[in-house]
Amino acid sequence: MSEEKILRDRLERFCEDVRKLETEIGRVLVGQSKVVRNTVIAMVAGGHVLLEGVPGLGKTLLVRTLAEAVEGTFSRIQFTPDLMPADLTGTNIMGENVNGIRKFEFQKGPVFANIVLADEINRATPKTQSALLEAMQEHSVTVGGVTHRLEGLFFVLATQNPLEMEGTYPLPEAQLDRFFCKILVTFPTADEMVGILDRTTTAANPKVEATFPTHRILEMGKLAREVPVVDEIVRYAVELCMGTHPDYPKATPFVRKYVRFGASPRGAQSLLLGAKINAILDGRFNVSREDLKTLAPMVFRHRMILNFEGQAENISTDQVLEELIK
Fold this sequence. Notes:
2 domains; two-stranded parallel sheet; Rossmann fold; Helicase, Ruva Protein, domain 3; five-stranded parallel β-sheet
């Protein structure tokens, strides 16, 4: 069997596994298929997701359902102003062994899980928010000078409410850049609302089967990186990323007028890797410009900083990206 045939079979199994996962999530979550797909893309890519939407749209339910479908550990952290870094990472506590000898032992915090829900992340202080930085980027936690590794799958899904800003602490740019993408959870349609009411106001109690092992997700992430990309597509991904910077010679007038700082190189990495996974799930084994255009808004929207004029005119980064892609 040729290498190309082997790769094609592996990619087809990749698609089948994702479809099964999405079907399991669909047993509980009504609609939001695009949000589910983008979340799965980020998880397979080895990134983290920032979910933004008003209360009651199922952000927490999505994360819980995903965790139930994956054979791994799950922890939920409710971020509050009095939450301390040790409440996330864990701390050293005094213990006593069978011989009566006392010594400090490390008590793991909730961040030591395969899937971590950081609920209302912008309600905690910057000191606590930064405790996630090392874990998200380095997959490790340092406490008392000792580094503890986060083994296997480590996937952070953070939620935030865009309406209520009182008592919140906006995420710093450094931490925002650690998120693979920012997904906007929109209000359901009328038909989806009917489905939500059918499932939540009757005796129906749909269950999700944990049939998706964490090691399979890591395997899929490695496979996605093997998908070849032609130089033209790589160059286009670079042009999209560089085009978000106002000082770039090819930047559009819209970007020059409203943007203070554009996406980082990490954004270009996320864009190309996400495009590879999107192409696979679309049944194609080559990345196209359309894949990059599809992924660009969710990958770049949180990595761009608007200037004073953009904020004063209530311009959104999505508007800037839409004009840039055109």
